[in-house]
Structures are given as structure tokens and as C-alpha cells.
Amino acid sequence: MPANWWARKRHYFLYVVREFTAAPLALWLLWLLYDISQKSLVHARAFAIFSAVCLPFALYHSYTFLSLTGSIVHFKVFDRPVSARLIVASMFGLWFGASLVIGFFLTWLK
Amino acid sequence: MHLLWWFLFAQGGVIAALLLPIHILLQGILGPLGFTSVVRPSDGAVFGNPIVKLYLLVLIAVPFFHFAHRLRYMLVDFGVKAARSVPAQVIFYGGAVVVTVVTIWVLLTTFPISFG
Amino acid sequence: MPDKMVTIRATRYDPEQDKEPRQQSYEVPFYDESMVVLDALNHIKSHIDGSLSYRWSCRMGICGSCGMMVNGTPKLTCNAFLRDYWPRPIVVQPLNNFPVIRDLVIDMDDFMHKLKSIKPWIIRKQEMPLGAGEHRQTNEQIDDFRQFSECINCMLCYAACPVYGLNNEFLGPAATALARRYNLDSRDQGLKDRLPMVADSEGIWECSFVGECSVVCPKGVDPAKAIQQTKLDTTLRFVLPYGNRD
Q1: Which helix or strand (DSSP H or E) is residue B89 part of?
Q2: Which of A52, B49, B67, C31 could bridge to A22 as Cys pair (CB 3.0-4.6 Å)?
Q3: What pLDDT digit, counting tens, does each position of C54-80 carry?
């Protein structure tokens, strides 16, 4: 296997990007944890720029992860298998709903 | 053990996928830049609430098992065979455990638990 | 009117003479839009160079013999239409991730070994007596495993899988999909017998869901789905109370 196997096909490259999203998201959560421990938004401007970089990675993680749940999750309702498309649609709906709820709490609790 | 790591990877992935984007958008971008008023780490009333603390523990710690698993296998994908070994598992998942412990400690010590 | 020609660049390798594989170009007449790469290879062997070695049989996408790399993608050469590549040259190489025996022929022992290891047959705790008649199965029960039974053992998925490419011990897509085919078969009672191979550290847990296996599968088996569902089922089986296990 050549060392750059992942760069040779678009599908492989997107896979590596998908896996890589773990890194910026981990760093973002660590920064958040640090802010919580300091009881303040440390370096607010830098945090905003860093967050702006992390957001596309977070969105790509969500999009790919939730899309793949259709393959993994399988169950039957009244002896008929639930379609993968319905499962994926529900996951995206859940994402949307959760974002609304959390967004509400984050802005309303202030 | 692989079963456990995969299970935590899956749970962490779901939590990160469903919750992180909105947190990053509001607490990371719109809040600090002042576009909307967002909960800040200085809000004692919010961060003292035990339900909030529990939520934050789940939000921060569980995805780290997802990140640990993914990053470890990314090393495998790049040809680092040692990443499959037991010491590597200890380092990566142990790291996630460390983050969990640190998160618990931070949440318990910054603002005292209150229902205010 | 001059014949339309297509260039085939095939890998040549004779282990008794060559130090390493090389490519040889052939010009093949492209006289029918329905021609496939296998037709071109057969033309080369019949009319240009009889020493070219490759596997093929049914020429209609059901035997799984003619899998090769066509312009870097694992394909059944009987399913790769010249019209999709012409006028660019078509590079035909032996299937990735397998040792090469000669030219386009690969050593498939590893796959055969793995296939056998997951016991691809109905396992019964106790055979039914002949007088009891045949195993009865509804269409719904067959639907449970039908997709995974479509595998023709062509090994394109192994050629596509980077995990297998990096680690030859990995059980791999087809073997796992077939294990699942039998585990889901209502007649089968052998799930526990297959578990050691499937739930091994070299089994399903090595898969990182790249998904390329399912992309290249010519029969729509979706081995990636089979592996992920096996991960989920194995985890649930571990967690749920005894009564819910198969």
C-alpha cells in the first residue's frame, strides 16, 4: 500500500477528512473546559476565530456521522424493517430539534 | 475491550454530532463576538446548577472517547502499526479517562453546586 | 473507415523472468459499443499475445472470476464498458492487496481461508430428522439476509479496503457479510460458532467504515453495512438480558 493511499481517490480523501474532524473538535472542547475552569471567556477574539475554523469541521462530522447511522441502525416495526432513509431523516430531525432546544437554553438562560 | 471502545465511540459520536455545532456557533462565535447574548462561563447561576454540570460532563467527556478512537485509528490508517497495540489503547482511551476526571474536577470546583 | 481502436495497458509479470511487474500496451479494435474490458483482454489473448494471463469465466457478472483494477478502481472486467473509458487508454492491473501470481492473476488463498473460517454453511445445534420435512422459511425471513447472500466472492471489496491493504489479518468485507448472511438465516443456529472469528480484534473492530467496499461491490451486497450492523448487534448482545440473544 503506498503511503499516500488516502490521497489517490476522492472517497478515501473525504474519509480521512471525516476522521480528522475529531482533532479540532477535541481542541475546541478543551478550550471550552479551560474557559469554564477560569470562569471567563479567555481570549474571546481568538476563541471566536478558532471556533469559526472548527465549525465547518463540526458540521462535516455531524453530516457524515448522522448519514451513516442509516447503515448501522436497524430494527423492525410490526415485523417490517424501518427504511434507512427514514432513520437518517429522523437523526437529522433530531439534530435540528436538539440544536433549537440547546440554542434556546444558551440564549434564554442569560 | 474493542466492543467497549466502539460503543463509547458511537455514543460520543452521536453527542458530538447532535450538540457540538450549536455550542460552537453560539458559545464559540456569536457569543464572544457579541452578536447575541449567550451564557458565559462567568455566569455562576447557570454553571452552579447541577443539571447543567451533568450536561456539560456528558457534552465534554463522552465525545473524547469518540475522538480517542478515531484519532487512534487514523494513525493506523497512516501506517502506524503500533497504534493497534495495547500501550496505544492505554494512551488514547486513558487520555479520554483523564479528560473525564479533569472535567468532573473542574465542574465540581469552579462554581459550587446551587439551584440558584 | 478506419477501425476505432482502444489502448489497453496490461500488467505483465512472469515471476520466473521478471524482477518486477511492467506494463505492456496493446491496441484493440473497438467495434461494438457493448464491448467490455474482458472482451479486449480476450481479443489480445486470441489475436495479439497469447501469453497474457488472467481469470474469467461467465463474462456476465455472476461468477466473480474477472476482478481486476481498471484505471485504479477494482472492477469486474466483464462489467467495465470500453465506451466509458475510450478514447483514453485503459490501465488493467491485478487486484490490489493480493499477491500477484502472474500478469493479472492474484493469489486468493487468504480470502479463501477467511471465507472458510466464518463457516459459510447452515449450522444446526441439532439436525431435524428427515421425517420432519424441510426447513420452512417465509419470504420475510429470507429478506432478512437476502442482500448479503448476493456475494459472488469476487474480492473487489478486499481490493478497495484500505484497512485490509494495511493489515492482511483483517477479516475483511465479504467474509463478514457472509458470516452475517448465515447468522441472520432463520435456519441457522451457529452465531456463537462464528463469533470468535467475527468479533475478533482482527474482525469487525478493525473496520473504520471507509465504505469503499460497498461502493465497488458489483452485486449491491453493502458489506460495510453488514460489518456496522454486526458491530451493533454484537454490542447489544453483550448488553441486553439473556433472553434477547439469538
Answers
A1: helix B86-109
A2: B67
A3: 999 999 999 999 999 999 999 999 999
